[in-house]
Structure formats: C-alpha cells, structure tokens
Design brief:
The protein is mainly α and about 240 residues long. About 75% of the residues lie in helices and about 0% in strands. It is built from 9 helices and no strands. It is a multi-pass membrane protein.
C-alpha cells in the first residue's frame, strides 16, 4: 500500500510538471519535452529522498552500528517512497516509448526495485538502503546539470558553479557511501540467500557508477577526451550521457 501510494504521488507530480513553463530550447525540440518533464519529477524525488535519508541517519545515528538488522520507521517509509518512484519512472519510460534511449535507467531501476522490495519484505538491510539513498543528495545537482544543459542556460557561470558542486557531491554522497557499503558487504555479509543477491546488485551498481563517473569527467572536465561527440544530436544520445 505504501509503495502504491508513492507511485500515485509521483503520477500526480508528473501531471503538475506539465504546468511548469518550459524554456524555448526545450519547446523547440519535441524530443526534449518528455525528458524535461521526467527530469523535473526526478528532481523532486532527489530533494525529498536525499533530505529524508540525511534526516533519518541524523535522527537515529545508532542505525549505523547495525546495517543488517537495524530498523527505523522513517527508513522503512523512505525505502517504500523511493520504490514507488522507481516503479513510476520505469512505467513513464516504457509508456512514452523511451526504453531504447533510457535502457540504462531501466536496468538501474530493475536492480533498485528488486533490492528494495526484498528489504521491505524481510525487514533486513534497511539501513544499507538508507545509506544508498544518500546518493539522491548528489542527484539534486546532477539533475540541475542536465536541466541547465537542456535549456541552454545563458549564464555559463551558473553551470560552472554547479559543475564543481556536483563533483564534490558525487564524491561525498555517491562514491563514498557506495565504497563503504561494498566493503561492508564483502567483509561482513553472508554470501547466500538475500545477502548474495544484494552483494551481486551492489557490485553491478559499482560498475555502473564508475562508468557514469568517467562520462561525467570527460563531459565536464576533459571534453577533449570525448570520442565521436562532434556533431551529435543531443536528442539522439543516451539519456545518462546527456
């Protein structure tokens, strides 16, 4: 019921996003209209889930001493809330025929949904999920980056400032929690049953995060290293590369 309610909430947010004015650069490119609306919903989730994860850990720091069996109502509700978002976004991608350009998101969402559902059902590793959802703090600035690129913002200073903030947040809220959880699972979690499933998910997510990080560095800090990007239509590029 909680997950289904979250799906409905993000469906309502998607409809509200229709009323948000779109920059001329978005309106002039039909392929960007859906993407703009999708990113606005993603931004809302990042703000809510990121701050929620921070609050949960700040309010109950003792959870960090028991990653496998620690429990809090706030953490449980957060995992249900984000599960609903991932389900909604998956359906949004599929029903709007964006699966080909956004297939990496579909893979990520399938991993997140299956892992989070297992946590909700068993009540174990909820603290690990809250730690992983700290990534949403980083996603706030990553989503702002993509919105600025799509809207062709006339102020390069704004993009430059966000570029460096985004890099710091990527290290602090994406790479650091991911590295810690990977170390913890490989060191302390039994490699069987749910533990084996979550460890495999985590290792695959490690590979994806490092791949995205290399793309981010090439795009924003070492553009000369990008291969085959000259003359490419942004609408034709993969969603995450944008």
């Amino acid at each position: 019921a909680l997950v289904g309610g979250s799906v409905a909430i993000f469906g309502a947010l998607r409809r509200l996003a229709l009323a948000v004015p779109q920059p001329a650069a978005v309106r002039s490119r039909p392929g960007r209209v859906w993407r703009w609306r999708n990113l606005l919903v993603s931004f809302a989730h990042s703000v809510l889930a990121g701050l929620w994860a921070l609050f949960s850990l700040w309010h109950s720091p003792e959870l960090l001493s028991d990653i496998q069996d620690g429990y809090s109502v706030s953490g449980h509700l957060l995992v249900c809330f984000s599960s609903g978002y991932f389900i909604h976004d998956t359906l949004d991608i599929i029903f709007n025929h964006q699966s080909r350009s956004s297939w990496e998101y579909l893979v990520h969402h399938a991993m997140a949904i299956s892992a989070f559902v297992s946590l909700i059902v068993t009540g174990r590793f909820l603290v690990a999920a809250v730690l992983l959802l700290l990534v949403e703090v980083s996603n706030i600035f990553l989503t702002v980056r993509m919105l600025l690129k799509m809207s062709n913002v006339p102020s390069p200073a704004l993009y430059e400032a966000n570029k460096y903030i985004n890099l710091v947040m990527y290290f602090a809220f994406r790479l650091a929690p991911q590295a810690y959880l990977t170390w913890y699972f490989l060191r302390s979690v039994e490699v069987q049953g749910q533990g084996a499933f979550l460890t495999a998910n985590l290792l695959l997510l490690d590979a994806m995060i490092l791949m995205y990080f290399s793309r981010l560095l090439r795009s924003d800090f070492f553009p000369s290293l990008r291969k085959g990007s000259a003359g490419r239509d942004v609408d034709g590029e993969k969603f995450l590369i944008d």
